[in-house]
Design a protein that fits this description.
There is one protein chain. This protein is an alpha/beta fold. The protein contains eleven helices and seven strands. It has two domains: 54 residues, no CATH class; 286 residues, Rossmann fold (3-Layer(aba) Sandwich). It has a seven-stranded parallel sheet, sandwiched between helices. Helix 1 crosses helix 3. The longest helix is centred in the middle third of the chain and has 29 residues. The chain is globular and about 75 Å long. The N terminus is likely disordered. It binds nicotinamide-adenine-dinucleotide. The site of nicotinamide-adenine-dinucleotide (NAD) has 30 residues, from helix 4, helix 7 and helix 9. It is an enzyme of class 1 (oxidoreductase).
Length: 372
């Protein structure tokens, strides 16, 4: 009673998805599929339903169940996006109207009062907005970026925005900008030394410096692949180690938040980006591994894995490939891309005492993309 009903339902849906399939049914394939099953076949063997079902399994030849086969889960080799030149990227601005002191009741444990946070890649994009979340929550912040000029402008703007939104504030946040190439060990040490001179200590680290590019795997230029892993993986690791060492020397607790990506758990389609996906998987597992290694020292390490967020970089990819936007949003259960400010709560939670027992976690902020 039960099994034929299921078969009928599956057969019906296969017919709806693949109207061409019945017309192409290769009978030898169906016959060979039967030999795999020890269960008696209870439905009518001559029915088209049976053929439709089998054509949608590994029993059939590729393409036998219709043109739709795997079409939403396929890489498109011709999509190629190089990371743009600095001059081709628009500037990011701090978010307006989201900060300000307020008197709404909330948990005191979310406050970052008295803390100092470092944000790598903080001049722009997600890093800048997450830096703003730290500032709004009470922290002083050091922005580290390859683009020092932009980091300086952003640091100034963060303070200006804070002033506008907190006209009564008796103390302004200290926000500084520092040159740093996260992929160079010397540069990491130099930037940290500079930050310690100005701020005296570091309690929080957010590693947001990173980038993606789209090349099919066969043609990926080796030097670009090394650069990509150098920034996304080595850069995250070296900053985490430098800050953990400082915290251990101070015998202070701290929190490190690594910015991974949903690409560390799924394979994006249709743009080809195997090295980026692998890099972000490395970041996610690096957070878990270091969380275990440094738990004894009170240093928490977590990962935030954003989905598609509309920053200057994603905008550039969408401008170069206009039909991607529809394909991306069609794959997101929420149906929308995120905005950088959608990370403000997540980063504040993981940086603050509100998450004291959360370490080694991967917090996905992706509109449920990775659930499907
Ligand atoms: N935008 C998204 O949709 C999205 C989604 C998931 C994950 N991410 C990740 O979030 C992070 C930030 O992305 P974004 O969209 O804000 O990018 P972005 O290009 O807007 O900002 C990245 C910043 O990092 C800086 N940077 C690059 N290389 C550096 C280096 N070697 N040393 C120091 N700074 C360097 C850049 O100058 C820039 O200011 C990246 O790690 C990215 O992989 C982004």
């Amino acid at each position: 009673m039960f099994r034929p009903q299921i078969f009928r339902r599956v057969a019906r849906s296969a017919r709806i998805q693949a109207p061409r399939a019945a017309a192409q049914a290769p009978y030898n394939v169906v016959a060979s599929a039967r030999s795999f099953s020890s269960a008696p076949i209870r439905f009518n063997k001559s029915s088209n339903d049976e053929d439709d079902v089998h054509l949608a399994t590994t029993a059939s030849e590729p393409g036998a169940s219709g043109d739709h086969e795997g079409q939403y889960a396929r890489i498109q080799d011709d999509i190629r996006v190089e990371y743009p030149e600095e001059k081709d990227l628009p500037r990011s601005l701090p978010v307006q109207g989201r900060g300000g002191s307020h008197f709404k009741r909330t948990l005191a444990s979310f406050s970052l009062d008295g803390r100092v946070g470092v944000v790598t890649g903080g001049a722009r994009g997600l890093g800048l907005v997450m830096a703003q979340a730290l500032v709004t929550s009470g922290a002083d912040v050091a922005l580290v970026d390859m683009n020092k000029e932009e980091a300086q402008r952003s640091a100034q703007q963060l303070v200006e925005t804070f002033k506008e939104e907190n006209p009564e504030a008796d103390k302004l946040p200290k926000v500084t900008a520092h040159f740093g190439d996260v992929s160079s060990p010397t540069s990491v040490n130099q930037s940290l030394a500079e930050i310690l001179k100005v701020h005296g200590k570091v309690d929080n680290l957010i590693t947001s410096a990173g980038f993606t590019e789209n090349y099919n795997a066969i043609d990926y230029p080796h030097d670009r692949m090394q650069k990509l892993w150098g920034v996304n993986v080595d850069g995250t690791y070296m900053w985490a180690v430098a800050v953990a060492k400082h915290l251990m020397e101070r015998q202070a607790q701290g929190s490190i938040v690594m910015i991974g990506s949903m690409s560390g758990s799924i394979v994006n389609v249709p743009q080809p980006q195997a090295p980026y996906n692998a890099a972000k998987a490395a970041v996610r597992h690096m957070a878990a591994s270091l969380a275990v290694e440094w738990a004894h020292a009170g240093i928490r390490v977590n990962c935030i894995s954003p989905g598609y967020m509309l920053t200057a970089l994603t905008k550039k990819i969408l401008d170069d490939n206009p039909d991607l936007q529809k394909r991306w949003t069609s794959l997101i259960p929420v149906g929308k891309m995120g905005r950088p400010e959608d990370l403000m709560g997540a980063v504040t939670f993981l940086s603050s005492d509100a998450s004291l027992y959360v370490t080694g976690a991967d917090l996905r902020v992706d509109g449920a993309y990775t659930c499907t």
